[in-house]
Amino acid sequence: MVEKIDNKFKTTGSLIQNLQDTFGEKLVSVILYGSCASSSCENNFSDINLIVVIDNLLAIDLKNAAAVLKDFRKTKNPLPLFMDKEEWFNSCDVYPIEYLDIKERYSILYGEDIVKPLVMEKTNLRLQCEHEVKNLLIKLRQNYLGSTNLKEIEELLKKSSKSFFALFRAILRLTQDNVPFDHAEVIDSLSEKVKIDKDVFLKLLDLRMNSKAISKNEHEITIQKLIDSTNEILKYIDKL
Fold this sequence. Notes:
The protein is built from ten helices and four strands.
């Protein structure tokens, strides 16, 4: 049975019922993850993030799912992520960052709890951290080279902020068990381990959470400090 869901999730409840009707026994689990799976869910700002796990997921199943998602699309939430059951369990080594985030804040809305048994190895976590930080550093450098005005640089800062805070939590997991959720606390914790410019990341946090614009004369130095701090983070991961 679909669990009782409050007003924010009325459309989600209908979606789950339609998924049951469409897939029957092939529907393994519907997972809610992120802030809306915790007490920090905000009606106006938090997205409903869902994972739908199907047994032996085929392309025709996606076609059938498209019709089921018609009403959910109107909510402007991200489309649910559809995964094959076998693929779900075989991806722990590839997506340890994402899976660890899911394990910390999730709720099973339907079916099996296929999150609890997941086990992520720190070796794989370190490799993904290195890969993601390297990619982010390369993108920052290339976009900075190609930016021709301050507006482009500010947009670059906004886009990169979400990636940084997710990565910071993953990096902290490599050396400690308890990692804070609060972004400012995460920045503080990482700055104790890595030589980063803490003020730059606090500015990014303001830019993301409060839409506080960075002053025109700070754009250049902010992106430069961000690139240099990212380079220091990469060096730190390489030494672990």
